[in-house]
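In the laboratory, one determines a bound structure by crystallizing the protein with its ligand and collecting diffraction data. In a computational setting the workflow is compressed into a single prediction: the sequence and the ligand go in, and a structural description comes out. We illustrate the idea with iron/sulfur cluster.
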Amino acid sequence: MPRKVYIHTFGCQMNESDSARMLESLVRDGWVGTDATAEADLILVNTCAIRDKAEQKLYSALGRYRSAKRARGTLLGVAGCVAQQEKGRLLARAPYVDFVLGPDNLAALPELVRAAASGKPSRVETAWMDSDSYAFPRADAEQARGRITAFVTAMKGCDNVCSFCVVPHTRGRETSRPYPDVVAEVRDLVGVGVREVTLIGQNVNSFAGGCDFPALLRRVGEVPGLRRLRFTTSHPHDFGAGLIRCFAELPVLCPHLHLPVQSGSDTVLARMRRDYTADAYEAAVAALHAATPHVALTSDVIVGFPGETEADFEATLRLVERVRYDNLYSFVYSSRPHTAARLHEEAWGVVPYEVQVERLERLQALQRSISRERMAAAVGTDVEVLVEGASRTDPDRLCGHTPQNRMVNFSGSAMPGALVSVRIDRASPVSLSGREIGLVEAAAPPAASSHVRLPVVA
Ligand code: SF4
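The predicted complex, in structure-token form:
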């Protein structure tokens, strides 16, 4: 019987993509994926280090999985940003872990698993690859057969030094993939039925893989059969006229942008080393709206950053009121190792936790009212939806996203991969609901398979 691997993924799209690549490499080595930890011969925890809470989640998860190891000899591996941040210290804290794998070392996974399975001592693989020799993991098109959406890595790492952020320490310096590789991977994925691709990177709009990011979008946008193109995560200081023109001129580029602002106060932005002002941020947003009025924006905000005064926080609330995001990912400041902010917390002034939480609640209440209002405006309209499959909330209904990346649950009969028109009759702050009223484009039958696909054992 093929051995089973369970991958527990924390964090961002980059981690989701890495988990998919890790599963694909193990499937090529004779493993199959499982959703049940109780059946797993290997449990791989792909970690996030962006906030302290994320790190604590790792150790409580490892505590749970330790019993599977005791009961069934299940192998345990830790990958991702906490693996890179902690390296061998992780084994000191959890000696029952079989291997620690950094984001630059995914290619070593099958060999690490074989070594662990043969009883070799625990290993740590967290060396940085230099940009010349780094081989970006590439989606296995055959294993992607039948998927409707996919992430494609355009670049990794980050050269910015935002004072609160651990990413440059856990993902390394910026390295961009040669654009022909990105285009080729998109072409292969579209060839097996993928209709929507999201280009990903910690700082994707600073791409420099033989062309700039707007040029990459145009080249990927020319791939025949690609219906939707998205990208994340962008930095405001790399968001310029070239990218705004792409939104206005590229029909395949979806009118949705995730543009983290983090704060509305210039004093706080300077301490965060974000390298832009609130006015410059809003000017870029205004220019985008002028070029593409129906674009939807989402963003990230940190509240309670060291030294943040009530007036600073008010500036953030005012900015959120003016920009009117579709949605906001907001968190209280979390002190991270190796970051400049941690060194200056006392000097800037630590914001008491209860004040941080009180501000977060006010911000989230404001955003909820804005999201509710923006989503309610869609009631009675017809929206285009890419069908992704059965609804997670009601298996008798279908679900998918609009070009603005709004989740829609609806009654209908279209196949996954089809583009349909849906009449919206209800809205919540986070999703829309309706019924299918017409087919815009049928699902494209994927090209004939040359490979027998191993089933993912549920
Ligand atoms: S841009 Fe800033 S917040 Fe984003 S990954 Fe880089 S250092 Fe972190």
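The mean pLDDT is 94. Keep in mind that any predicted model is a hypothesis to be tested, not a measurement.
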